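Researcher: Good morning. I'm working through a list of sequences from a screen, and I'd like to move beyond sequence-only analysis. For each chain I'm collecting a predicted structure so we can compare shapes side by side. This is the next one on the list. No need for commentary yet; just the structure.
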Amino acid sequence: MSQTEATKTTTMSSVDETAAAAETAAMGSGKQQLETYRVYVVTWNVGSRFPDNISLRQLLGLQDAKESPEQSHHLPDIYALGLQEVNAQPQQQVLGLFKEDPWTHKAKELLRAYDYVAVKTEQMQGLLLSMFVRRRHVQHLQDIEAEYTRTGFGGIWGNKGAVSVRFTLYGCGLAFVVAHLAAHDHQLDERIEDYKQILEHHHYHVKRYREIYDHDYVFWFGDLNFRLQGGDSSTEVRELLRDEANHEALIQRDQLFQVREKSQQAFQLLQERLPAFPPTFKFREGTSEYDLKRRPAWTDRIMYAVQPLNRQPGMQLSIEQCSYKSHPVYTISDHKPVTSDFALKLYPNVRAPGVVFSPLTLWKIGDENTVEYRKQAEFEEGPNDWIGIYPAEYASLADYAAYEYVNQAESPASSDSNHEADPFDTPAHHRHGRHHHRNRQRLRRHQEANAQEQVRLDFADDVELRHGEQYLLIYFRSTGVRGVTSLAGISAIFVAEKRHGSPHRTEYHVD
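Model: Good morning. Structure tokens for this chain:
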């Protein structure tokens, strides 16, 4: 075992007692318990294809699901959609600065009917990770952060490498890492080196969760490109696959199985139910027939890890890989997608301190409006905290209609936003002029006797909301551009209405 891996193993079994004590204090007075939650992971090398004219229902396990929150209680709590070789031509990357990539958009439009919210997307050239969470869990997301590591051409080019999203939910840290490693049978050493580079260069800025394996749960998946050992020809491998009795012998020759279980040169801290499905590469596009230009191989994999003793004594965390399968029905690329459904334990009573909004029944379009909230005693503002106005049925945290910074003295004036944007890239990038009265204070604070603070923040009169539509407020605690973001509070729903007798103003749709 390398020195790096030995360090990671030690990290997996260590506990930061100070941070753990602080989190325990934040759990509240309710009796602690463990509950089961479900995570659904997808990996697919889409071969630069777009999701036109295909349905994602089977891919996301929704073929039998009812399109209503009340009828879909059995569905996953979290979706992780990891794609490789997403079309990354220059024109697509330019478009991606202004709106969602087509794959994320298609998944979002399907999942919104089941009450999911797109909470974070990270892309590095053709490598894409999109995270979706059931709406009831969104307000409990803490310390959301994305990271990426390039390994192509010695770390200069991002055609290979990894992107990840981590967050804390119900007292547990979860890390989702999607990777695309070096290709071809003879590049095993390069794949091992890619893995080590990702571990060395992937770092987060969250206490207790600095590295990938610091997390309570880790999901590592993607086109890992591991092939079969041995000198069989493509035709010989295909013939062996015709008889299921040969399946186990072939998987024992899988390079990933060898480096993880036998030599322990890479991925040895992760677990995997060995694939019971046929190799997912390489197929002739538009068919389910192997392309014999390459030997069939299990290149597309999903692995996981858990630190069972990372939280409460006597309340061990656990995870089960409930399903692990490929989806041959999808034929647009030379890979078949792979999915896995997990059941894991979290602490549902854990609640981080935040803010509580006062009721706001009506937003007067064309007037300045005051938002009032109470900061709980343990809550600490970040340097770039902001409050967003969202449609009540928002399907993405990028769907804000307007926003305002809490610390106005440190930031320019804010604006409405009528395009897709990443709220975790501080909204200051998308601002325009405002109509505030500059000669008066727009943020007022009042310290209460119970160590809580009451805050009033004015939104400008040019916020463009739609008459008669419903909205809500979300408070984001943020450390800034590409920083760490937490949801600290969500308001009740309110209605936006025009002033009586106000002139007609153009109403903007939130895409």
